[in-house]
Amino acid sequence: ANSRLQHEYVPSAHLSAACTCLAWAPPGGRPPPSKDGPQRKKRKSEVAEADKQLDTLAIGTAVGSILLYSTVKGELQSKLDGGHDSRVNCVRWHHDNCCLYSCSEDKHIVEWNTQTCKVKCKWKGDNSSVTSLCISPDGKMLLSAGRTIKLWDLETKEVYRHFTGHATSVSSLMFTTVKPMNENKPFDGITGLYFLSGAIHDRLLSVWYIRSDRKEKNAVMSFTVTDEPTFIDLTVSEVKEEPVKLAVVCRDGQLHLFEHILNGYCKKPLTSNCTIQIATPGNEGDPTPKPVPILAAAFCTDKQSLLLVYGNTLQPIIEKVSLNTTESHVCLIRDIQKVLSLKTDIALTKV
Predict the structure, then answer these.
(1) What is the pLDDT of residue 43?
(2) pLDDT tens digit string along 231-270?
(3) Would you state the pLDDT for residue 41?
(4) In the predicted model, is pLDDT for residue 55 greater than 60?
(5) Hey, what's the torsion of the CAs at 4, 278, 252, 23, to 10 degrees?
(6) Confidence (pLDDT) at 211
(7) pLDDT value at 66 more than 50
(8) How many beta carbons lie within 10 A of that of residue 341, not counting itself?
(9) Residue 8 has pLDDT above 80, yes or no
């Protein structure tokens, strides 16, 4: 609410290596989303309760160990060792929150039991490093990606589908629908779902469609952005007519918003409905506005407004912005110099 630092965790340098990825544990053993009809609105007390439970953070490190950190206690709970012998690239929690998946530069995927801190299962995920993971909405399948994207059956640990598309390693994977678009066949939990992938140095985000009949390996559509995507958030489409909203923050500090109904194949790359940038107003000495990079963005629960994180990473500013996508380009003027220059002066005198 006030963009102040609440909590800082610095791993002791001689014991652990740099943090490479992290993931919040799901709130305490929640039931899977109900299949019938819309979700009931949560009461205020329940929301507060859920916030309390968002406590454990899994942090992957550059040496291959995974740290479980409690934000409530402000200390490490446990350390998962013996799974990877190289940099951990991605960690993902399963819905039944004692199970954690991780992938690494060592080409392997590991399934952890976080209560015993032991490896439940380890298997080779790719011929090169595995860079990204994502768990299917019903929790029975796992997407993994390096250069190619594979869909694994979590029970048998066998590949169910292959997708080939990016020339570089995939940096983000996420499901964009929770129900199939054609309702005439019984749903097996995965067929008919769409998912999205973005890769390093790739200005196209690909959307894939999981089919059981055709061995189609290519993306069904793609979104084009101005630079490599560094942060992606989306609202999941729960019914057929509901468009997926996508917020993509690029390396150049711009934010692109897309809104699209996923309905099969689309040949040409889709461009964004709206691009958001932030700039300083410029002052007497230097009247030219300077761009302020957007670092991350996330949709609020109402799916209508966005949380923007911008400025510099040491002192980010967090702001809630309501979306108006009628304009194709929005430039927000924010004077952030006062806040930042003051802080850096203090820091310099200390040094």
Answers:
(1) 46
(2) 999 999 888 888 999 999 999 999 999 999 988 889 899 9
(3) 44
(4) yes
(5) 30
(6) 85
(7) yes
(8) 9
(9) yes
The tokens describing 118, both together, are 């032991």
SS3 assignment for the chain:
CCCCCCCCCCCCCCCCCCEEEEEECCCCCCCCCCCCCCCCCCCHHHHHHHHHHCCEEEEEECCCCEEEEECCCCEEEEEECCCCCCCEEEEEECCCCCEEEEEECCCEEEEEECCCCEEEEEEECCCCCCCEEEECCCCCEEEEECCEEEEEECCCCEEEEEEECCCCCEEEEEECECCCCCCCCCCCCCCCCEEEEEECCCCEEEEEECCCCCCCCCCCEEEECCCCEEEEEEECECCCCCCEEEEEEECCCCEEEEEECCCCCCCCCECCCEEEEEECCCCCCCCCCCEECEEEEEECCCCCEEEEEEEECCEEEEEEEECCCCCCEEEEECCCHHHHHHHHHHHHHHC
Q: Are 320 and 3 in contact (CB under 8 A)?
A: no
| Burial letters 106-131, b for 16+ CB under 10 A, else e | bbbbbbbebeeeebeebeebbeebbb
CA distances from 78 to 62, 68, 69, 117, 128 (A): 17, 5, 7, 7, 29
Q: How many residues does the chain have?
A: 351
Task: Please compute the mean of the pLDDT values over residues 115-132 and round it to a whole number.
Answer: 94
Please give the radius of gyration of the chain, using alpha carbons only, rounded to the nearest integer: 21
| Four-point Cα dihedral 51, 55, 61, 64, nearest 10 | -120
Residue-wise pLDDT tens digits, 67-123: 999 988 888 889 999 999 999 999 999 987 689 999 999 999 999 999 999 999 999
Structure tokens at 270: 């889709």
Q: Which two tokens stand for residue 310?
A: 């911008």
| pTM recorded for the entire structure | 0.85
